[in-house]
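User: I'm putting together a small comparison set for a docking exercise, and I want a reference complex before I start. The sequence is below, and the ligand is S-adenosyl-L-homocysteine. Could you produce the 3D structure with the ligand included, as structure tokens?
Assistant: Of course. I'll restate your input first, then give the structure tokens for the complex.
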Amino acid sequence: MSDESTVSLETGQVAKVNLLGLSGSRLGDLFEELGEKRFRGTQILKWIHQMGTCDLDDMSNLSKPLRTRLATIGEVRLPEVVSCQDSVDGTRKWLIRVEGGSCIEMVYIPERDRGTLCVSSQIGCALDCAFCATGKQGFNRDLTTAEIIGQVWIAANSFGQFVPGAPRRVTNVVMMGMGEPLMNFDHVVDAMNLMLDDNAYGLSKRRVTLSTAGVVPALDKLGDVSDVSLAISLHAPNDALRNQLVPINRKYPLREFIDSARRYLDKMPDNRRKVTVEYTLMDRVNDRSEHARELAELLRELPCKINLIPFNPFPGADFKRVTNTALNRFRDILHDEGYTVTVRTTRGDDIAAACGQLAGEVNDKTRRQARYKRRLEKQQVIKMIEA
Ligand code: SAH
């Protein structure tokens, strides 16, 4: 799957380029190939991402013959919104179908002073973290740049943000939906560049956050091409525990991950920036005082703030939410050790839109989803017998 034109093996027909996923510079190349001026690329970019116009015929500053020629090679193809649910707390969740039939989920979380869009990067996830619903769905494929930026387009459109003079409702984007963004490096970087581009969504680098479970070589590469905000999913203060919770830790252990996050910060010109450390708290798994103290020690050399996430349950999960007592104790220890600590309030859990609850409809290419379903069925049977 790519954003460029592809030849279908079945029909021999050339699929048109999806203009939605192209940068201003790639669009410029396209116009040059048509014997036109490069700046037309910027014009198209603004039509699509600032005015929300997807029909080439409506792009009135391009001549009719040019629009006709462009239409022979390109078009704007948006992913399809299957459904959209609103939580009592204002959180909104979309189910979005992408090419091939699978569905991904996207969430919007309004707060007093901002609106954060949580965007997916893959259909399912290959990492299989023990406490995450997405991992249980298995993995289908990476999303294309168009499918990633298309999510931002869909949200902006649904809030009427493309109407001239309308307020910006999507003020922040976090790559914290389904998937591991660093496993889909090129498409994620291209999509984030569109989020940052002043001729597209124009978000500042502080308002676009990539979250990773620790794909160290890709994180090192990211620092060479991007300066978005970084969040790292730790969830455990030592390798023995993290190996159980986040299997990729067996390949890239904690020390390597944290050093790589530090290198990422060191590459930024602005030396006041901090990494956000995400730590999902699960009852009697990683919520003890010793864990908090070990975490404080581990993070000593990393400029960071710590975001504690009470575990969000999903059907068949092996874990329970941290108790309030343990949560407060954990927070206080880190605070006393000198860290800035925030607790992520659970949002949208009535519509299964909270962290780690995104499941979508993944046409799984691994055996994981089938295994998960068998387990759920077994649990149901046990519950019935017990009732
Ligand atoms: N793969 C990336 C992006 C996912 S972000 C990453 O791991 O960072 C989603 C965040 O929510 C991650 O920190 C993830 O570990 C956390 N999370 C996953 N399942 C959760 C659950 N059930 N409850 C609370 N947080 C969860």
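The domain at 80-373 is CATH 3.20.20.70 (TIM Barrel). Residues 129, 131-132, 176, 180, 211-213, 233, 278, 280, 309, 311-312, 355-356 surround S-adenosyl-L-homocysteine (CB under 6 Å).
User: Thanks, that's exactly what I needed.
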